[in-house]
Amino acid sequence: MAETAATLPKPLGGRTRALAWLQRYGVYASVLALLLFNVAFTPHFLEVANFRTQLIQVAPIVIVSLGMALVIGTEGIDLSVGSVMALSSAMVVLYLGYGAPVAIVAALAAGAVVGAGGGALVAYAGVQPIVATLALLVGIRGLANVLVPQLTEFRNPTLITLGSRSVLGLPLVVIVAAVLTAVVAFVVKRTIFGRQLVAVGGNRAAAKLSGLPVRRILVAVYVLSGLLAAVAGVLATARLQASDPTSLGLLMELSAITAVVVGGTPLTGGRVRVLGTVMGALLIQLLQATLIKHNLPQSWTQMVQAVIILAAVYAARGRKK
Predict the structure, then answer these.
(1) SS (H, E, C) the chain
(2) Which residues cross the membrane (predicted)?
(3) Domains plus CATH for the chain?
């Protein structure tokens, strides 16, 4: 009897329960707190035009963060997403002479190719994800700057429609982000690939021993991350009607990682929280907007993001222990 009792799991302590609650619901509480703060102290915050602006600006962060969540779910990381956005923007300009559809396809293909390269380095060459994607971050940004060395403006009816049109009052870029969120959520929760992805992140060795195609799964995940980053790059380029690889997507990887980690997806893999990731992206956008509206420098946002990442990682680590 004593032996049986000894094997029973111990009840969670107060500190562990608090960390578990923080990891699961902290992002929702933070978004609510920021909303209440802005309602009380930010002029014109409740205006429809402001909400529209916030949704348009958060859409690329959401799209990139969805891909990052899939990668982190496999215990990986993708630092190249911002550079992929820049490359996709450059490809739009280069191929726009062949028509907007060709330019968009070329941009998306470029993102997928970069993702496949990163995935191959991780899955087949055995390079650590942070090293492989860091190399791509530097190299792809340089390639984008070589292809389009300066700010290039353009006027294209199709891209103008993509970047500025609304459907039933919702900007098209927001609708695209919402549809992609639903697709990723379905893939993670309802498909074999989603379950395999989580299994690889939870225990790669066990997944391999059980017969899962671990390498193919890893490559596919990085391809999806590159593809989603390219989509975000195309949408941002269409909205701006210009390509500037020097600045487009700069530090986007930091925003995406913050959104994913704050949203409850642990850096140790084995879990993907899609809705939490979206809320994490919204938290980042609200934080940036709040600081700007209260005349605080952009550098404050980066410092706050660093603190948020540390707090989220600490909460996940404490809960795991």
Answers:
(1) CHHHHHHCCCCCCHHHHHHHHHHHHHHHHHHHHHHHHHHHHCCCCCCHHHHHHHHHHHHHHHHHHHHHHHHHHCCCCCCCHHHHHHHHHHHHHHHHHHCHHHHHHHHHHHHHHHHHHHHHHHHCCCCCHHHHHHHHHHHHHHHHHHHCCCCEECCCHHHHHHHHCEECCEEHHHHHHHHHHHHHHHHHHHCHHHHHHHHHHHCHHHHHHCCCCHHHHHHHHHHHHHHHHHHHHHHHHHHHCEECCCCCCCCHHHHHHHHHHHCCCCCCCCCCCHHHHHHHHHHHHHHHHHHHHCCCCHHHHHHHHHHHHHHHHHHHHHHHC
(2) 25-42, 54-72, 130-148, 168-188, 217-236, 248-267, 274-292, 298-316
(3) 47-320 (1.10.3470)
Category of 88 on φ-ψ map: left (φ > 0), alpha (ψ -120 to 50) or beta: alpha
Written as one letter, the residue type at 49 is A
Cα distances from 32 to residues 135, 138, 321, in angstroms, run 38, 37, 29
Label residue 207 by pLDDT band (50, 70, 90): very high
Residues 82-131 have pLDDT tens digits of 999 999 999 999 999 999 999 999 999 999 999 999 999 999 999 999 99
Residues 186-199 have pLDDT tens digits of 999 999 999 999 99
